[in-house]
Design goal:
alpha/beta; Rossmann fold; 6-stranded mixed beta sheet; 3-stranded antiparallel beta sheet; 6 helices; 11 strands; globular; zymogen
Length: 280
């Protein structure tokens, strides 16, 4: 690459805002949180996702506690999901800190199952890029995907440690900024691998996420919190299906992609109501 030069073109005030350590989380409202929960599917080869209601209920409770206005959308079709995403991205988010989208479904290889068809993960986050959703420019855009991303299973690896075994809406007019910054996409599993769910208690990932949000959601940096979530999933869970050796004693690890540029915390915010025109 040639003719590359360093240039900001920004005055000192804008530079100071850009390089601030933490995201501004003092807007009037925390933001909208959408939960797309698919339990049943038109394809008879896709089994009902028993236990997903536990994930949705827990997640809604924790997000409300953090100040989000939460809406659940149950068993939506691909058309309905993408329409709701497009409408959400088109709203004015000027008074909101961020946006949170959760997907609870089956999936594979970068795609997610709606009730009737597959759609790509990119279909969910791309409408929130800064050129398409300017009122979320410079604000966190958070996506949490509870879905398989393949059919591989993780048998785990024995870790032997003998010595331990006894025990703001600014669009930065003066600056060029990447359009796809300030995103976080947290997957329940690695590309190509299964994601596990208990039919009574819900998925390992959402259980662990909600437990960490309950403990540290208002005080911990989100990326730090997600490291703790990964630890819970990795260390606290193992599949139990002795009648099927290919599905017995399997493990899971979460996978996070981030273009966040600052520290993200959710300090306490009053639960002041706001009108959500999306549902009118």
């Amino acid at each position: 690459m040639t003719n590359v030069r360093k240039r900001s073109g920004c005055d000192s005030g804008i530079i100071a805002d850009i390089v601030s350590v933490a995201y501004k989380m003092t807007h009037k409202y925390r933001g909208r949180a959408l939960i797309f929960n698919n339990e049943h599917f038109d394809d008879i080869n896709l089994s009902p996702r028993m236990g997903t209601h536990m994930d949705s209920e827990r997640l809604e409770k924790e997000l409300q506690r953090l100040g989000f206005k939460v809406r659940e959308y149950m068993d939506y079709t691909k058309k309905d999901i993408l329409s709701k995403i497009k409408k959400t991205a088109a709203r004015d988010h000027s008074e909101y800190d961020c946006v949170w989208i959760a997907i609870l479904s089956h999936g594979k290889n970068g795609y997610i199952h709606a009730r009737d068809a597959l759609y790509s993960v990119e279909d969910i986050w791309r409408p929130f890029a800064e050129d398409k959703c300017p009122t979320l420019a410079g604000k966190p855009k958070l996506f949490f995907i509870q879905a398989c991303q393949g059919d591989r299973t993780d048998p785990g690896y024995p870790l032997l440690q003998p010595e331990m075994m006894d025990n703001e809406t600014s669009s930065f007019m003066c600056c060029r900024m990447p359009m796809c910054k300030d995103f976080l996409i947290a997957f329940s599993t690695l590309p190509g691998f299964c994601s596990w769910r208990n039919t009574l208690d819900g998925s390992w990932f959402i259980q662990s996420l909600c437990e960490e949000l309950a403990l540290k959601g208002s005080s911990s940096h989100l990326l730090t919190l997600l490291s703790s979530v990964a630890g819970r999933v990795a260390f606290n869970f193992e599949s139990y299906n002795p009648s099927n050796p290919t599905m017995h004693q399997k493990k899971q690890i979460t996978f996070t992609m981030s273009t966040l540029t600052r520290i993200l915390c959710f300090p306490d915010k009053s639960s002041e109501e706001f009108n959500d025109e999306l549902d009118k």
